[in-house]
Write a structure and sequence with these properties.
- This protein is an alpha+beta fold and about 160 residues long.
- The protein contains 4 helices and 7 strands; from the N terminus they run E-H-H-E-E-E-H-E-H-E-E.
- A 7-stranded mixed sheet has the order 1-2-3-4-5-7-6, sandwiched between helices.
- The longest helix has 17 residues.
Length: about 160
């Protein structure tokens, strides 16, 4: 599997993967995380234009996953409740990690790639997203506490720090 920056002509495939993921989450006990079409076409296009949106391609070159990765402070991570971050060092953030369900190992590949960019990564997920919580712990992230997103909803926050 390879990871490359997304291009605007990837947008339709990316949107279809998010559509699949929203349905999968709703059918597997997580109906409230990505509601009302989130993430929108505009959010994804903005991330592409900011060079912070990446796609995962299988051996045939087909897009099977996607995510946003940004190195730098995230305003939603400034305050953490019922816990604390592992450290205050510079970090990267993974947002909106998604898979089309056809390829195993997307999360692990994404994390390994991100750790090559910076060895301190934060991520969050909805309390109902048991699958992502399990994947975070399986991939050596530590649960750190609760953060609030831009719209005030709670998310469980995780961090991995190497070195």
């Amino acid at each position: 599997m390879t990871i490359t920056k997304a291009k605007y002509n990837d947008l339709e495939i990316i949107i279809s993967i998010y559509d699949y993921a929203r349905n999968f989450m709703a059918n597997n006990g997580n109906p409230n995380q990505w509601i009302d079409g989130y993430p929108s076409r505009e959010i994804i296009a903005k991330d592409i234009s900011n060079d912070s949106f990446y796609v995962c391609k299988n051996e045939e070159g087909n897009i099977v996953g996607a995510f946003t990765f940004i190195i730098g402070n995230d305003p939603t991570y400034e305050k953490i409740y019922s816990g604390k971050w592992l450290n205050d060092k510079p970090y990267g953030v993974i947002h909106r990690l998604v898979s089309n369900g056809t390829t195993h190992g997307i999360t692990k590949t994404c994390i390994k790639w991100c750790l090559k960019q910076i060895q301190n990564i934060r991520i969050d997920t909805h309390a109902d997203n048991k699958i992502m919580q399990s994947l975070m712990l399986k991939n050596e992230f530590k649960y750190c506490g609760i953060i609030h997103t831009h719209n005030g909803t709670e998310r469980l926050a995780f961090q991995i720090a190497e070195g």
